[in-house]
Known about the structure:
Layout: E1 4-9, E2 13-18, H1 24-37, E3 43-49, E4 52-57, H2 60-77, E5 87-95, H3 102-109, H4 113-121, E6 125-130, E7 137-140, E8 155-158, E9 162-166, E10 169-172, E11 177-179, E12 182-186, E13 207-216
Parallel strand pairs: 5-13
Antiparallel strand pairs: 1-2, 2-4, 3-4, 5-12, 6-7, 6-13, 8-11, 9-10, 9-12
Helix pairs in contact: 3-4
Amino acid sequence: xxxxxxxxxxxxxxxxxxxxxxxxxxxxxxxxxxxxxxxxxxxxxxxxxxxxxxxxxxxxxxxxxxxxxxxxxxxxxxxxxxxxxxxxxxxxxxxxxxxxxxxxxxxxxxxxxxxxxxxxxxxxxxxxxxxxxxxxxxxxxxxxxxxxxxxxxxxxxxxxxxxxxxxxxxxxxxxxxxxxxxxxxxxxxxxxxxxxxxxxxxxxxxxxxxxxxxxxxx
Length: 218
């Protein structure tokens, strides 16, 4: 079992944070713990993150310090949760105007652009959690060979649907925003539809594959 530390976050929340490395098994245990404590009367919301869990408290002035001790104990007693795993495919146009950093990733990894595309699209991914933007998926499963540092200077505007690599992770921008990930492709699939009953396309535990549609590479 990975060791965890718990601490206060501001005046209204406590955080359980695991020691590295990140693993699917530890993430499943975080999902399980979030499900277990969500109905507790002292818990306003349980928010899974990557290797961590943030718990917003209903009465922080009375329960914060006790919550740290209880959260630590609950983690030691927790079990994995296996959400209903849907298989999602995301069509992607790689390279060219859709993926302006593909050549940079290829240079960093020692691959050709086509090899980067094949490696990225050939992997199986799992949605660990959603964050940064509504519906932005942090995915586990990026091949180590594709790990590429974020841009030294973030872009002021990343188009919605951009598929990028940031360090050892890959993800999709649901909305246009500033961002520093290396952009290798673009999808027309909407990941966030605020007026829908289920606004986010993806949810934790989903399996995901990228499917090349057209490659703007040499």
